[in-house]
Amino acid sequence: MNRQIADEKTGIGYTLQANYYLPNFALPAEEEQPIGIWRERHRRYLKEHHHILYYNLMTACKLNIYLADIDRQAEEMFFQLVQQMAMRKGVTEALKAQDQMALIESMNNIRNRAMEVVNTEIISM
């Protein structure tokens, strides 16, 4: 019995799997993008809360591009928020020279607040 056959009308090839011939379909290769923390969080959010959008992007081979764009936007927003909040709070090099623990405490607080904003505005949209 042939393990590979081809339909001449459609041009689709079939492979024997157990007792069934299954079509030889493969998705086109997607461009690989580096995985960032925001990208992974948004991917998980889509997979858990927006199944249809997630699978539509995946089957259209646009998921990696979409997630890379989200990651870039979130990263830019995060750094801008951290800089703006640090300026408003008066976190400067002078504070670093005076009291390093106060600087670390302030920056951790600022980073956590910025992370919450990015999660709300971009990741969980």
Descriptive report:
α1 crosses α2 (51-59) and α1 (37-49) crosses α3 (63-89). The protein has 125 residues and is mainly alpha-helical. A hairpin with a 6-residue loop joins β1 (4-6) and β2. Helices cover 63% and strands 10% of the residues. A 3-stranded antiparallel sheet has the order 1-2-3, with no helix packed on it. It contains 5 helices and 3 strands; from the N terminus they run βββααααα.
Layout of strands and helices, then pairs:
Blueprint: E1 4-6, E2 13-17, E3 20-23, H1 37-49, H2 51-59, H3 63-89, H4 93-98, H5 100-123
Low-pLDDT residue intervals, each spanning 5 or more residues: none
Q: Please tell me the overall pLDDT.
A: 89
Order of helices and strands: EEEHHHHH
Largest sheet geometry: 3 strands, antiparallel
Number of domains: 2
Number of helices: 5
Rg, rounded, reads 24 Å
- Would you tell me the structural class of the helices and strands? mainly alpha
Helical coverage, percent range:
55-70%
Largest beta sheet: strand ordering = 1-2-3
Oligomer: single chain
The coarse silhouette is rod-shaped
Quick structural gist:
The chain is mainly α and 125 residues long. Helix content is 63%, strand content 10%. The protein folds into two domains: 1-30, no CATH class; 34-123, no CATH class.
List keywords for this structure.
single chain; 3-stranded antiparallel sheet; mainly alpha; 125 residues; rod-shaped; 5 helices
